[in-house]
Design a protein that fits this description.
This protein is α/β, with parallel strands linked by helices. 43% of the residues lie in helices and 21% in strands. It has helices at 53-71, 86-89, 91-105, 115-124, 164-180, 187-197, 203-207, 213-218, 221-227, 232-252, 272-285, 298-310, and strands at residues 9-16, 19-26, 33-39, 46-47, 50-51, 76-83, 109-114, 129-134, 138-143, 148-152, 260-264, 290-291, 323-327. It has a 6-stranded mixed sheet, sandwiched between helices. Strand 4 and strand 5 form a beta hairpin. The two termini are 34 Å apart.
Length: 328
């Protein structure tokens, strides 16, 4: 038998390229998880108005009601939603979600945050510094606790320098150079590329028309990391990626003592072939910032933001694009 909780609940949502993740906590200041997480397998669609608010609600509401029921929560104190693309594609969410979530779940306090902000909060909490969030793409975000700064995150055609798609593309370029007989080629990466994608002449046809081209490029990044120990060309690709990452972090990290820098995202699972040069680059470009491990992931960050909002303790800088707050 489920007993009602004496404290209001808080709902945290992470909306990204692999779907929604949702967790329910308590607004008691502990940040403890009460129920979940649960996940969908379908990313939220985008349309003419940007991120599709109706599609997000269609996935979120059934999961939220199930978590609330299972936990015996009678009242929701706040909801925090971290969403990929919010800064540029979030107008529909900002316009529609406050009233919809009040009507459907009775919640009157809502935060809509860019996924970079929830990644930052999950990693560093309420401390000043910078976070590099790297997966298929890459973005750095920093704050001195008065405003936010972001660098890169421009997508695989214009930026995301050092991210998974960038590394994979650079590795495939080195493979193609070896195939052509040009300088800077990597025979080792050529072998790996043909093992993964087939003969090089067919590679453009397998990439250029793909809607998921960034993910396909990023799928080759682990092959670059696996070659780096014995192949200087692969090692140079990762060194260049590390330099780009550190440059983005340096662009957003506040000056002065007390700043911290952390890493979050699946790309760093590649381990030492990337992390060793990245730590060296960060020490050189950000000598004043202390490198620390990330405390949690973006879903954890959304939970911290929701808890702070429910308790009138949200001190992170508010921003119309990056950290939008709707309350009554």
């Amino acid at each position: 038998m489920t007993h009602p909780s004496p404290a209001p609940g808080v709902l945290a949502v992470d909306s990204g390229g692999s779907g929604l993740r949702v967790v329910l906590g308590l607004a008691d200041g502990t940040g403890a998880v009460r129920s979940g997480p649960v996940a969908s397998e379908e990313p939220v669609r985008t349309g003419p108005r940007g991120i599709d608010a109706g599609h997000l609600l269609g996935q979120l509401l059934p999961m939220a009601r199930t978590l609330i029921s299972e936990a015996g929560i009678e009242d929701l104190g706040a909801i925090a939603i971290g969403a990929a693309g919010l800064a540029t594609l979030g107008d529909g969410l900002r316009a529609e979600l406050p009233s919809a979530l009040k009507r459907e779940l009775g919640v009157r306090r809502l935060v809509l945050a860019a996924d970079a902000v929830t990644a930052y909060t999950g990693a560093l909490g309420r401390r000043p510094g910078a976070v590099i969030a790297a997966g298929t793409g890459l973005i750095a975000i920093g704050t001195d606790l008065t405003s936010w700064r972001r660098a890169d995150g421009w997508g695989h055609l214009l930026g995301d320098c050092g991210g998974g798609a960038w590394i994979g593309r650079a590795g495939l370029e080195a493979a193609i150079r070896a195939f052509d007989g040009r300088r800077g080629g990597s025979p080792a990466l050529l072998v790996r590329a043909e093992r993964m994608f087939g003969p090089v002449p067919g590679l453009p046809g397998k990439l250029y028309a793909r809607a998921d081209r960034p993910a396909v490029l990023a799928s080759f990044a682990p092959e670059v990391a696996a070659s780096a120990g014995s192949d200087p060309v692969a090692a140079d690709v990762l060194r260049a990626a590390a330099r780009h990452m550190a440059e983005s972090a340096a662009a957003v990290c506040p000056s002065g003592e007390g700043a911290q820098v952390a890493l979050t995202g699946g790309l760093f699972k590649m381990g030492d072939p990337l992390l060793v040069p990245l730590r060296e680059e960060l020490a050189e470009q950000l000598p004043h910032a202390r490198q620390v491990p990330a405390a949690g992931d973006p879903l954890h960050g959304a939970l911290l933001i929701a808890t702070d909002l429910a308790n009138d303790e949200l001190t992170l800088p508010r921003d119309e694009r990056l950290l939008f707050v709707a309350t009554e």
